[in-house]
Design brief:
Blueprint (H helix, E strand, L loop, with lengths): L1 H7 L13 E5 L6 H12 L2 E3 L8 H5 L5 H22 L6 E3 L5 H9 L2 H15 L7 E6 L2 H11 L9 H16 L5 E6 L9 H10 L7 E4 L7
Parallel strand pairs: 1-3, 1-4, 2-3, 4-5, 5-6
Helix pairs in contact: 4-5, 4-6, 7-8
């Protein structure tokens, strides 16, 4: 209860005309994207775009069934593009906060598809992605592979028990590679291996205070005492 009451006392201050209108939160599986997106959407009074969690092909993909990777990836591509396109087209004064970046889809496609599947996927991606502008701000949540594996095991979500440790590491490495070169938006990088926005209110409060200040280029955030 202490976390809830203190969080309510710390709304994010508006930064005037420079405040980002379109924010995306990204990072590998179980890094904390949905939790942070929910918290920020409440404090920013933002419209939230949820990532697709009802992909009917995902369970088959985790079980490595033949052809499931391409089916799962195409479903994600079409659904993510549709959600972002509709949210961006809406006439609303509220800022937009997305649980994902459009480029996320390509990160996973490059990991999961064979060469021929990837060629076909890229033709669809190029057409669909050009309709989605880059966010004003991306918040990239990092975590060590061992931290991600522990959170996956703790969550025990349906189908995720089939995710191999090697795949978790591949995904984390792919994200690092992508964001090392990312320049399309202002970028705030947060390593979540040693911080917890849910259980430790001070970690959350420090991030909310940081987001009151502009993010220019690529910047890094580490709460004081996080490494203790």
């Amino acid at each position: 209860m202490a976390h809830e009451s203190s969080a309510k006392r710390a709304p994010i201050a508006k930064r005037g005309p420079q405040a980002p209108r379109f924010i995306a939160i990204e990072g590998p599986l179980r890094v904390g994207k949905s939790t942070l997106a929910r918290i920020l959407a409440e404090r920013l009074h933002a419209r939230r775009v949820y990532d697709c969690e009802d992909n009917p092909f995902l369970s088959d993909f985790y079980e490595e069934k033949s052809g499931s990777a391409f089916r799962a990836q195409m479903y994600f591509l079409l659904e993510r593009q549709k959600r972002l396109r509709e949210a961006l087209a809406a006439d609303s004064p509220a800022p937009l906060l997305s649980d994902f970046l459009m480029e996320k889809d390509r990160i996973f496609a490059n990991l999961n598809l064979d060469d021929e599947e990837l060629k076909l996927y890229e033709r669809y991606y190029d057409v669909l992605a050009r309709e989605i502008p880059p966010p004003d701000l991306v918040i990239y949540l990092q975590a060590k592979p061992e931290t991600l594996r522990a959170r996956i095991a703790k969550k025990a979500a349906k189908g995720e028990s089939h995710i191999s440790p090697d795949y978790v590491e591949e995904v984390a490495r792919a994200y690092e590679h992508f964001f090392f070169r990312y320049e399309a938006s202002d970028l705030l990088v947060i390593n979540t291996s040693d911080i917890d926005f849910v259980e430790r209110s001070e970690d959350l409060q420090q991030l909310l205070r940081r987001l009151q200040e502009p993010v220019k280029g690529t910047q890094y955030f580490l709460p004081l005492g996080a490494a203790e």
